[in-house]
Amino acid sequence: PEILNNSFQLSSLPLQILLYVNGVYYIFYFLATLTMIVYKSQVFSYPDDFLAPDLLVLFIMAILEVPRLYLGSKGNLTEEEAPLGLSLVLTLGSVVLAVYFLAWQTYVLRADVILNALLLSAYGLESGLKVMAIAAFVS
């Protein structure tokens, strides 16, 4: 007897690819931003009171990135809206921290603007794909 499989795949391939690319880009982003903070602390008169918070924000962002990407990938692949929704909430936190590096850190170089503009663009695209995936899973 032939078994018919009428199930549809709802997970998003573009979202999965973007999550992977964001993971690779974030490693580059973290290393580049860390290097620039060290550079700025050596070249500019970087107040000691501001060096620690800039580093702390970068490390908090890195810690946040791991569950954000894991939950996004897991939610997409298992077609569950809860992990994907939680990843979306964590993305909002990452956006705030990226805006910190774009606008509020002690010294903002052109390289900071470029790195953060790329990161924020990726977050925006990823968030849109997450919302579309969640809508597909719910319906």
Can you characterise this structure?
- The protein has helices at 13-43, 48-78, 81-104, 110-138.
- With 139 residues, it is mainly alpha-helical.
- The radius of gyration is 18 Å and the shape is elongated.
- The protein is built from 4 helices and no strands.
- Helix 1 runs antiparallel to helix 2.
- The model has no long low-confidence stretch (mean pLDDT 93).
Strand content is under 5%
**Run of helices and strands:** HHHH
* Rg on CA atoms, Å: 18 Å
Distance between the termini: 32 Å
Oligomer: single chain
Tally of distinct domains: 1
Largest sheet: none
Return residue spans where pLDDT drops below 50 for at least 5 consecutive residues: none
Mean pLDDT comes to 93
Shape: elongated
Structural class: mainly alpha
Helix content: over 70%
Work out the helix count: 4
Pfam families: Transmemb_17
GO biological process, one term: non-motile cilium assembly
Organism: Ramphastos sulfuratus
GO cellular component, one term: membrane
Explain briefly what this protein structure is.
It contains four helices and no strands. With 139 residues, it is an all-alpha fold.
